[in-house]
């Protein structure tokens, strides 16, 4: 396995052990491990994995290990820096992939899931765009997950915990937006 395959496998294993229903808490716990860098394409797996794990732990019935493995394969196809080069954040794409896996949505799907997932990811991208760059994989994950929480309540009827999110990773981010970051504890209220 190459480095990214090892990192994402460790993420899947860590998520599979989580019992929490708060995707932000799962994210903080797993993202603090040594196999997750401050920035990197491992977030293209991590962020959707946290949502899948929270939904499973909240009672949604599906084979968690199977969907985590499939999400890992999807996430490994996304190159790093797609936020800057492609105009779509990997955190958001990971959430979209997780939703598609949950509802078995594909490119030829004709039910409401196809457009519904795009509405969720479009909202998340709009929320990220409003904050601005440069990229921060932690800020983008928080924003994507916070956008997904009300979506899954509306779509699936599953209430996941909401919280005021405070970032503990900012000291390691040389490009932290500081006062422009809604999660930086030095500046958020």
UniProtKB/TrEMBL annotation:
Q: Name one Pfam family in it.
A: DUF5714
- Residue ranges of the DUF5714 domain? 11-183
Record-linked InterPro entries: DUF5714
Q: What is this protein called?
A: DUF5714 domain-containing protein
């Amino acid at each position: 396995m190459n480095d990214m395959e090892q990192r994402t496998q460790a993420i899947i294993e860590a998520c599979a052990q989580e019992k929490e229903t708060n995707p932000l808490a799962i994210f903080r716990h797993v993202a603090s491990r040594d196999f997750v860098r401050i920035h990197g394409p491992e977030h293209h797996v991590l962020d959707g994995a946290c949502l899948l794990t929270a939904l499973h732990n909240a009672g949604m019935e599906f084979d968690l290990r199977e969907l985590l493995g499939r999400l890992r394969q999807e996430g490994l196809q996304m190159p790093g820096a797609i936020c800057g080069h492609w105009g779509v954040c990997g955190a958001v794409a990971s959430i979209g992939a997780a939703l598609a896996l949950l509802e078995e949505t594909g490119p030829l799907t004709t039910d409401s899931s196809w457009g519904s997932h795009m509405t969720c990811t479009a909202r998340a991208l709009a929320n990220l765009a409003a904050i601005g760059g440069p990229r921060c994989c932690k800020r983008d994950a928080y924003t994507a997950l916070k956008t997904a929480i009300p979506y899954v309540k509306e779509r699936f009827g599953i209430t996941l915990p909401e919280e005021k999110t405070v970032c503990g990773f900012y000291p390691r981010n040389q490009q932290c937006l500081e006062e422009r970051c809604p999660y930086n504890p030095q500046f958020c209220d």
